[in-house]
Fold each of these.
Amino acid sequence: MGRTRIKICGVRDEETAWAAADAGADAIGLVFVRSSPRYIDPEAAAALMMGLPPFLSTVALFMNPSLEHFCDAEETCPTTYVQFHGNEDEALVRRCGPGLIKAVRFDKDTIADDLARWDGVDEVDAILVDGGAGGEGVAFEWNRLAELVDNLSKPIVLAGGLTPDNVAEAIRVVRPYAVDVSSGVEKERGVKDPALVEAFCRAVLGA
């Protein structure tokens, strides 16, 4: 399947972005959700993007945005990809894609239906599976997800409770296209630790 890609989510400053890039990350996440401790204003995010190294992708994270809010933010800060991390309906997803990553929350009773639903939407480029609402560090049953991914046409991004200590095992079990981490590389809520970012990336690349 090739190398597992790495996204460091909740980046709010250029120093952290460069630490992620230097450690081997493929993408950084910019959280456009005001209630999040990792929120960054789209204008500040656009300024941050001006100083990024080449070939580092950017992902704007939204949660249940209105179409107007989405369009305004994307006009101010046009990112490589968009991530919808709420209960967005298919109509909104279709209008805001392609280049869209749709997140679903793992529930053993509904995960198969959720994956099948978004796997059938052309505007969705990848499906992210999280253990919680995002940035909560909630892990889940990787084995159950592993049973389902081979039947999907979309790449799977694994998130939720990942850390430098467990991400290699998660990759071994699920074999995802990419992994996404936020709280697992923080020294305090909303503040990334460059040493943990480096350790996380090293563990993924080693796996």
Amino acid sequence: MANKRGFTEPMEDFLLSSQAEEGLRALGQQNLANQYHLALLTQLRATYTPEQAGALLSLAITRQKAADKFPEADRLFFTPEALEQATTWPIAQHRAAYLHRHAPPGPVLDLGCGIGGDTLALARHRSVIAYETDPMRLRFAQANAAALGLAGQVDFRLADWAEELAGDRLPFAAAAFADPARRAEGRRLFGLEQMIPPLSVLLRLQARIPALGVKMAPGVADAEIPAGCGVEFISHQRTCKEAALWFGPLANGGKRWASVYDGEGWHSLEASLALPPVGDLLPGQYLYEPDPAVVRAGPFAELCGMLDAHLFDPQIAYLVGPLPSPGSEAAPFVQTFQIEEIHPFSLKTLNRRLQALNIGQVELKRRGPPIEPESLRPRLRLVEGGRPGVAILTRRGDERLLLMARRV
């Protein structure tokens, strides 16, 4: 019998067996680049069936891809789709620690645990009751918890938590964390009522378990966010990966904030949504590009205060000001550039300035104009052997601008 992810039940049994473990251990020492797949499959078929060999190679490749996302990925179990949807480990740890700090004592429900990314992080702090409707993902989550020595911390349940809620069968918990599906039949779902389950069901859950966290796409519309909940925008490797809606004792007073991971730790910046100052744009100023999570959260007034900076257009999320002092508390939230020149934008002007400034490698950045920077790249006239530089395409009012700059 095949499940909806394409594996047969015996194949799942095989991947979790000691026989498969030997093959996976051997593959972990191999180069898994595309050009070696046929040779690796031929070797594996000397010991395993063709179906088993394919499943082993697929899991080994997925483990390799998971190395940046999970600790000890070479011991864990994934499917490609589940790995893509799983929370990056630093984010899962950050969120689990936040929930543990602010929720009352007791177990936590993980509602839609997948292959266990958030479950494993939560289980390092509290006992967890984890729900999942996909049998294969649940079995892999169980195996992952066992691999990390956390099996005793988690009660795994194969059930639809929304149905359990409707039937008044959800167990007691001090807090809950939900990860609603934002895709169905290959389609991306937009809007909080289109998620599975929808926001209305989550709010019924929150009436029963006040301390609730909900994983969201970072593009969640502000108008759809319920009043009184806190909103956290979470950035990892300069990408705003997720948003979290926090309810009840987790809501942080209904505030918005950005949380940014800079490779060394987490840094948070709350937004008052006060209007930031607006001023001049001049050559020689330093331009600060806020992290995408900061842009979504909106603490521009706070960031301007930290940097003694201002916006040059109220609709453009670039700050300009003096060079920050070493060790500035704003450092994790911005990238810094020094503006060398300011011109009206045209491709002809850009190419002329690339030549005049002896730029051989250019970083293209954009905020405001509709033009895609990479569409310009084949048409650029760079200086062979020239220095690195930055071209920033932006606007002030209706005026399209080219800022020639260097990264600080």
Amino acid sequence: MRRNQRAAHFRANRIPKFPGYFERILRRNNDGADFMFGKRVSYVDLSLFQMIEGSRYAFSRTMERLESQHPRLIMVHDRVMARPNIAAYLSSPRRLPFNQLGIFRHYPELEEE
């Protein structure tokens, strides 16, 4: 398989896999819930928030296309981001921007053409 074929396979199959899994759980378990396990934020919600943020950085065009397919997951992301202490942290200089040295890196060759 060539590099561009592997990239297309990655975009089509691997990137959507995890948001799809969590979206299905949110649909099945949480009619009207604010977060993954109900009304209270959990470490799972915080992790999902970071996964969405990092994926937006690493695969911006792919995530832009996929997000409309995962409305509950994006809702959890937005609710976590709106929490006062988290919002204060995100707008502070303590929040390090994503970069090419962290776990989420931008790979232009994996972006959609």
